[in-house]
Structures are given as structure tokens and as C-alpha cells.
Amino acid sequence: MSIKIITDTGCDLSKEIIDEYDIEVMPFIVNLDEQEYEDGVNIKPETVYNSMRNGKVPKTAQISAGKLKEVFEKYAQEGETCIYIAFSSELSGTYQTAVMVKNELLNTYPDFDLTIIDTKCASMGHGLVVYRAAQMAKEGKTKDEVLDTIEYYKNHMEHIFTVDNLEYLYRGGRVSRTAAFVGELLKIKPVLHVEDGKLIPIEKVRGRKKVFKKILKIMEERGDNLENQTIAITHGDDIKGATKIKEMIAEKFGCKDFIINMIGSAIGAHSGPGTIAIFFLNKYNGR
């Protein structure tokens, strides 16, 4: 039995991985200069980042019910077994809309085998869940085996990230105007993580060099068998920073398997240029 893996552009997976594992990826919406674009389809992340550097404020929207229905119905008609691995419900309403659309479709296609998963993850934290599920599906694992692994990954996924400019978090309502102003004045960089699907600050550090050292310290405290994991790194149009922290992680923990990709337009519209994010599995029993 084949399993079709469906996800959305909140996963920040590369085109190479998407193509290799035949993953169906639905786009979030990005609004820029009064134009509507589909994330990963007709707008590049670099365009969004450059617009933000020039003071513009792009907006995003979740995947529409119509788009979800279009994709789900296609596989329902084909009798496919599907798993939709969704972006965190705490950061987007897409998961809830997908559940609603599925329930409506079951009236017409009562045998449609679709499981919808709320990862409570974002960016490549979400992407690593999708990636592992797609690998298992390609290996011919059963749906129950794939779902068990998804459950483990989503409950043990660490997201540790920093933004280059607090202004972008201010625009998204994550910090106050005063905090953003003082942070920029003092070159303070926040270290944040994702807890139960929500963005949570851990610490504020002065200067990027100290931020990277702090991230490595957190990895050391929380990581589980890091040298044998796939470590994901995403960046807001800052490949130099991503490469630097990759080298630091490889040297400290002996990690060899990395995925590095730019943060897509939808997430990047909120985190901004210069963001660096690290994703790995922790050693805790769930979050």
C-alpha cells in the first residue's frame, strides 16, 4: 500500500527533497505591494527579504479551504491513502481548516483514508517530520509505522532560533516597540524556541557570536545522540551565518548529516532577514 505525503510550505523543505519523495506541497499566501502570491510558486524568499530590508511589511494568509479541497479531493477520487502533515495550529489556522474540509469530503467519499497531523512545529522542524515520514513511505512502511514515527518526531523536535533584528518580531506582535528599539540599539539578539507550537523566548544575548555559542549550549543540554541525527538549519537569506553555525555544530558534536535551506516567503515575512534556526531531536519524553 502506497502512502501519499501531503504538507504545506511551512515545512521549508528544498525542491530537491520534495521532488525525490514526491511530496505534495500546498502554498501559503504572501501579500506584497498589494499583490497576492503563492509561497514557493510565484515569489522568491529573496524578494520578500529585500522588501523587508527596504521597510516594507509583507502579510501572509493561510491556505484556503478551496485549495485544501482541491488537493484532498484529487486523492480521494484516486483512492489514495494520505497523510497531511500540517504547520503548527498555534501559528496558522490551516490545520483546523483542513480538518473541516476533510469532514465535508467524507460525505462524498466515505472511504477516503486521510489522516491530518498537527505537528506543532514550524519551518524545518516541521520539515524534518515530513522528511522522515516521506522516507518511510518510500521504503514501503505501513501507515501505522509512519504515524508512530511522526508522533515521536513532532513530540521531540527542538526549534532553536535567533533573529537579526527585533523590529521584525515587533511587527508580528512578538515584542514591544520599546524592546525592539532598545534591542537594536544595544545589538541584543533573542534566542527563542517553539513550545507546544508557540514561539517562546529563552534568553537575550548581546552580539551574534555569543548567540551562536548559546545555541550550541542549548543543543548540548537538550540534544539526543546529535552526531547520528540529521540536523536542519534554515536561514533568512544568510547562508554565511548558516554555514558558520553548521561548522560549529559539526566541530562540537561530530554531526555529519545536515540539511540547510532558506526560510520560505511565508515564515520569512514574520522572522525577517538574518534569521538563523536550528532543528534537532531532543531527549525528553515529549514536550
Which consecutive residue ranges, at least 5 long each, have pLDDT under 50? 174-183
Question: What is the helix fraction of residues, given as a range?
Answer: 40-55%
Number of helices: 11
CATH class of the largest domain: Alpha Beta
Order of SSEs, N→C? EHEEEHEHEHEHHEHHEEHEHEHE
| Spatial strand sequence of the major β-sheet | 10-9-8-13-11-12
Distance between the termini: 32 Å
Average of pLDDT? 90
How does the helix and strand content classify structurally? alpha/beta
What is the CATH architecture assignment of the largest domain? 2-Layer Sandwich
| Rg of Cα set | 19 Å
Tally of distinct domains: 2
CATH topology of the largest domain: Hypothetical Protein Tm841, Chain: A,domain 3
**How much of the residues is beta strand, in percent?**
25-35%
Overall outline: globular
Largest sheet properties: 6 strands, mixed
The number of strands is: 13
Pfam family, one: DegV
InterPro entries: DegV, DegV_C, DegV_domain_contain
GO molecular function, one term: lipid binding
Function: May bind long-chain fatty acids, such as palmitate, and may play a role in lipid transport or fatty acid metabolism.
Explain what the structure shows.
- It is a single chain.
- With 287 residues, this protein is of the alpha/beta class.
- It folds into 2 domains: 3-30 and 61-156, Dihydroxyacetone kinase, domain 1 (Rossmann fold), CATH 3.40.50; 157-281, Hypothetical Protein Tm841, Chain: A,domain 3 (2-Layer Sandwich), CATH 3.30.1180.10.
- Helix content is 43%, strand content 25%.
- It contains 11 helices and 13 strands.
- The protein has a 6-stranded mixed sheet, with helices on both faces.
- Strand 1 (3-8), helix 1 (15-20) and strand 2 (24-26) form a beta-alpha-beta unit.
- It is globular.
- The relative contact order is 0.16.
